[in-house]
Design goal:
Blueprint: E1 12-15, E2 20-23, H1 61-69, H2 74-86, H3 93-110, H4 117-123, H5 128-178, H6 186-200, H7 211-225, H8 236-242, H9 247-262
Antiparallel strand pairs: 1-2
Helix pairs in contact: 2-3, 3-5, 5-6, 6-7, 7-9
Length: about 260
């Protein structure tokens, strides 16, 4: 007899609409691409709504009422399955069942649809001991997701600076040409952009300042501390006027930048 790959129940029925095998205990679709759907009820012609059929009739009415009242949207089941598939380890049997319950609980919390672990344990016919034992696997997933989010944020920020800096360099060059100042050549611009990008990879650099303020401050720092090409220069006042930033703001961010560099 067929058994569910999640809860090992033998309550497998054919969904006449989708033509798939469905577990009436936990709602899983018994297919190779393993997606989760809402619990499909068996039809009772004496009622407008469906009801959950129990194989041996041993389930209590309290359990049925809990399952009926704890309805969870179909999208939550699918999201929980995707979360399960993203975990670095593949689970089987009882452990897989417990991990999935924790995934479903996490999805419900993320969507502000509170469902207790106790409700989910009854819904999926899983004992609380199994759920509690497997919650550590969800912590691993959450830590991994948090790390990926931080890395992605850092990459997005680096890309943002990389795209913005060439425009700042062109603005400076145009100003220099208009004011008969030697402009930066391509090699100089490339080195400056590369240097500033390296500085700004440190997220703690001038923490709390906008990307615009950070870039202008780094440019000013570069002009103040460059060792070659003394003719290539811009004053603080010129930079502030050119990039529409107040001298007070630049002074504060520059002081913060010097403090950050001293601690590197």
């Amino acid at each position: 007899m067929n058994s569910c790959y999640i809860c090992l129940s033998h309550s497998i029925v054919v969904d006449n609409i989708e033509g798939a095998l469905i577990c009436t205990e936990c709602g899983s679709v018994q297919e190779e691409n393993l997606t989760w759907n809402e619990i499909h009820f068996e039809h009772d012609h004496n009622r407008e709504d469906g009801w959950i059929g129990f194989e041996d009739g041993s389930k209590s009415m309290d359990e049925y009422n809990t399952k009926n009242e704890c309805s969870i949207p179909e999208s939550f089941w699918k999201e929980a399955n995707n979360m399960l598939l993203k975990l670095p380890t593949k689970y089987r049997g009882r452990v897989k069942k417990g991990v999935y319950a924790n995934c479903l609980h996490q999805v419900c919390m993320l969507h502000n649809t509170p469902r207790s672990l106790k409700e989910i344990s009854v819904l999926l016919d899983i004992d609380m001991e199994t759920i509690n034992e497997t919650c550590k696997h969800m912590k691993t997933y959450q830590q991994s997701e948090q790390k990926n989010t931080i890395q992605q944020h850092s990459m997005d920020q680096d890309n943002e600076f990389t795209k913005m800096l060439p425009r700042y360099m062109e603005t400076i060059n145009s100003y220099m040409m208009d004011n008969s100042i030697d402009k930066m050549n391509k090699n100089k611009k490339y080195k400056l952009i590369k240097q500033i990008c390296e500085w700004l990879q440190n997220e703690n650099l001038m923490e709390g300042k906008t990307p615009h303020t950070k870039i202008v401050t780094c440019i000013y720092y570069w002009f103040e501390h460059k060792e070659d090409d003394q003719l290539l220069t811009m004053t603080k006042k010129e930079l502030c006027r050119l990039f529409d930033i107040s001298i007070v703001t630049l002074n504060k961010s520059y002081k913060q930048l010097l403090h950050n560099f001293s601690n590197l």
